[in-house]
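May I ask you for just one protein sequence along with its backbone structure tokens in two labelled lines?

_____
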Amino acid sequence: MKKSWNIWNRETETLYINRYSLLKSIFYGTTRGQLLVQPTKLAENNRKGDEMNYIVGFIFIVLIGYIFEQRRHIRFLEKVNYNQETRHIMADHEIFLLKHQIDTYKFALETLGYSQDNINKDDYTKHEPSPEKLQALQEEFQKEERIYRSKNIQFETELELRGVE
């Protein structure tokens, strides 16, 4: 009996079909007859690029918002600092006014012949001041009044420059 060199039979046909469908499914991404379109590498890279663009855009918008918030906060702190400086100027002037008022009372007591040191020791005796001492007290009082007026003008000018009424 002559042997046939034909190897095509039912078994080889099945192997060939299975191999063909496997290669087709790998190449086209299909399984069991489902046709799926596989995106190319370029399309995948474009999609990843789009996602990165969204992320970068979102981060950019967040950073711009953060910068605007920081600028708003800086303006707020500058305003608070300006108001605090104004309050310190007013408080310093009030302290100066109190010291001036105390000095005025001291001059009045010394002019009338009383001593603050003696009054603090519960000694309320009156000593008549000499005309020279009265003249010295008057000159010192006038000097203090000039200082008071110049400080008062300086304070009012400072408040006008700051816009405080």
Q: What stands out?
A: The two ends are 128 Å apart (CA to CA). The first helix runs from residue 10 to 28. The mean pLDDT is 81. The chain is about 80% helix and 0% strand.
